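Lab notebook, design round three. We kept the backbone fixed and only want residue identities now. Task for the bench partner: fill in a sequence for the structure below.
Input structure tokens:
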């Protein structure tokens, strides 16, 4: 495709403006539809008055209203906030609304057990607190309400299909499938729905070679398994994090710029997904055996491997990372809006905050003001509670995995029970009041062992939000939680893989205004290969995460093969709402492309020219609506070393 002329015709059948759609014949006239997976006509909807005898089904204009909460607040004139909406969705005893997507299957031949089905429903994942019986009853009530609604609209009775998650942590999931089927509502997974739209059965996200023991990880094993670096893991469900391993395969779709794939790129680890194990010929017969997997974009081979080949592969992956020495001489909050490189270095405030200072000074139009809590406060905290001694003992003893995790738990417990300096709390509250005008802030990890050119560490450590009304105790608690996240098993394993000295790691904290009610969010990644700069952009509507998507959501994925060219390819369309594929953000799309070129040049400028070709830039961005206009912002930017698997 070509910028800036983005086709609009493929996006919509028809849009009109309305405050309420209850009385209109939406189903039969296909008003407000958009295309999911580039093929399936879809409505976004919400069941309101859930606490009444009869819920009301609303299908609404997703262009006019940027989400369920805004529709409820504005169109239905309730005035509720997004936070209030979430509380009135996820809690069964307080539920007033239930958001969903309604898929129009009338133009697709869908037959199950000899019966033809014309629609399907997916309940949007809001981390529901229902138990299994409550979730079953909730799902059935919605399905019956939609059946009745469609019957009135179309003049004929019909039952539809419920789209269930395969991940047992998501709700509703396949554990309730049997009961729903008995009530006349068959089910399918999102992968099966994607297959209806002609989606890919297998996709390689990070090509290359992996040699290791092929292990299958069932959904109920994710928390208990301790994979080794010599393993190639087949995950039945999409995990939030994967420790250093020899290869990653998931049986649920991944996002190209998720934390999992960014780490795979940084580690040089093969990463792919298949909608079913049968689409990886021979894999099922090789579980628990030593294998070699070679995957390119359009070809995957899986064969048995010998031990010598495996040992050579594993040895070649060992790469020691030297992290910057943390300095504790800076004793007060650091202003990232000034130009003082001495205190804005990685050694004082960590890489995330240091990178933020650089892009804030280089691109002030796109980067909000920021501050940092330097390393000195972290080291004072762990010393005051004895965690520093626990850390030294752990590193010296080198216990087995189970004992190590117990010791890590003790370290985290010591830190979360520590006392935070009252002077720091007072300074932070003054900062929030005077510089952020009492807006909600974000406390974000900024260590000397993440966001480094050779060590990405995407998603390893914790961030936390804070409102000034929450009080001193909660602010101290949030700081301790960020500090303690340095000592989770996953974080420790990642550093261990790169032979990082754990006694030198430190945690600073980046502070900036939190983004709330964003129109869209996303991740953009530049890559340099053979002198050609390419750009991938993954984005999602509203606050729905791209890096760690809820349930089985699929983001919009676009790819520029050659910059500064304007041609791009649509890799996937959002399962929720189009972002840049349409006319609304046409100018912001061009702006983002040009900004990514400038950020890439800025962050790679200091690299050795012989190495710069192996680095890309990973940027998280937000699109906000400010005074009625769309505004593009950079949330963070970091170098990412692109390690090509052998």
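Proposed sequence:
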């Amino acid at each position: 495709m070509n910028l800036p002329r983005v086709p609009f015709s493929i996006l919509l059948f028809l849009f009109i403006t309305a405050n309420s759609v209850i009385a209109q014949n939406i189903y039969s006239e296909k008003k407000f539809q958009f295309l999911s997976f580039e093929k399936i006509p879809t409505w976004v909807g919400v069941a309101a008055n859930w606490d009444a005898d009869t819920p009301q089904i609303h299908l609404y204009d997703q262009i006019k209203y940027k989400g369920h909460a805004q529709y409820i607040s504005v169109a239905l004139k309730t005035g509720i906030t997004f936070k209030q909406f979430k509380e009135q969705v996820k809690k069964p005893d307080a539920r007033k609304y239930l958001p969903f997507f309604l898929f129009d299957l009338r133009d697709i031949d869908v037959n199950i057990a000899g019966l033809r089905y014309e629609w399907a429903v997916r309940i949007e994942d809001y981390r529901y607190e229902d138990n299994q019986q409550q979730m079953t009853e909730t799902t059935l009530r919605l399905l019956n309400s939609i059946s009745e609604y469609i019957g009135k609209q179309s003049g004929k009775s019909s039952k539809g299909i419920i789209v269930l998650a395969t991940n047992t942590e998501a709700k509703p999931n396949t554990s309730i499938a049997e009961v729903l089927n008995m009530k006349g509502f068959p089910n399918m997974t999102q992968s099966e729905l994607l297959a209806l739209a002609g989606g890919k059965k297998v996709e390689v996200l990070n090509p290359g070679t992996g040699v290791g023991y092929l292990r299958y990880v069932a959904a109920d094993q994710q928390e208990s398994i301790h994979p080794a670096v010599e393993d190639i893991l087949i995950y039945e469900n999409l995990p939030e994090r994967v420790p250093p391993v020899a290869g990653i395969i998931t049986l649920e779709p991944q996002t190209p710029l998720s934390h999992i794939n960014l780490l795979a790129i940084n580690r040089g680890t093969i990463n792919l997904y298949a909608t079913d194990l049968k689409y990886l010929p021979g894999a099922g017969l090789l579980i628990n055996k030593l294998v070699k997997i070679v995957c390119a974009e359009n070809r995957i081979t899986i064969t048995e491997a010998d031990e010598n080949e495996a040992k050579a592969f594993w040895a070649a992956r060992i790469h020691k990372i030297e992290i910057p020495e943390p300095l504790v001489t800076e004793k007060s909050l650091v202003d990232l809006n000034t130009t003082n490189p001495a205190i804005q270095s990685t050694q004082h405030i960590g890489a995330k905050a240091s990178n933020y200072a650089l892009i804030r000074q280089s691109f002030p139009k796109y980067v909000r003001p920021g501050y940092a809590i330097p390393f000195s406060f972290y080291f004072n905290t762990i010393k005051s509670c004895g965690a520093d001694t626990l850390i030294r003992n752990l590193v010296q003893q080198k216990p087995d995995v189970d004992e190590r995790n117990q010791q890590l738990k003790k370290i985290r417990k010591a830190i979360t029970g520590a006392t935070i300096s009252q002077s720091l709390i007072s300074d932070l509250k003054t900062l929030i009041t005077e510089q952020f005008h009492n807006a909600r802030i974000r406390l974000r990890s900024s260590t000397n062992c993440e966001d480094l050119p050779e060590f990405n560490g995407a998603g390893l450590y914790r961030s936390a939000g804070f409102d000034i009304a929450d009080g001193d105790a909660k602010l101290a608690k949030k700081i301790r939680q960020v500090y303690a996240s340095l000592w989770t098993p996953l974080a420790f394993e990642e550093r261990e893989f790169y032979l990082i000295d754990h006694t030198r790691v430190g945690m600073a904290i980046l502070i900036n205004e939190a983004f709330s009610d964003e129109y869209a969010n996303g991740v953009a990644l530049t890559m340099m290969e053979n002198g050609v700069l390419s750009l991938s952009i993954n984005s999602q509507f509203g606050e729905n995460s791209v890096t760690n998507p809820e349930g089985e959501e699929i983001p919009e994925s676009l790819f520029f093969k050659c910059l500064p060219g304007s041609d791009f390819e649509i890799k996937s369309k959002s399962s929720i709402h189009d972002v840049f594929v349409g006319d609304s953000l046409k100018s912001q799309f061009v702006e983002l492309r040009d900004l990514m070129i400038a950020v890439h040049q800025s962050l790679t400028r200091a690299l050795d020219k012989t190495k710069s070709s192996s680095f890309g830039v990973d940027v998280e961005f937000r699109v906000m609506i400010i005074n009625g206009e769309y505004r593009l912002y950079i949330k963070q930017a970091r170098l990412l070393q692109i390690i090509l698997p052998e």
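Keep this in mind before ordering anything: The first strand starts at residue 34 and ends at 36.
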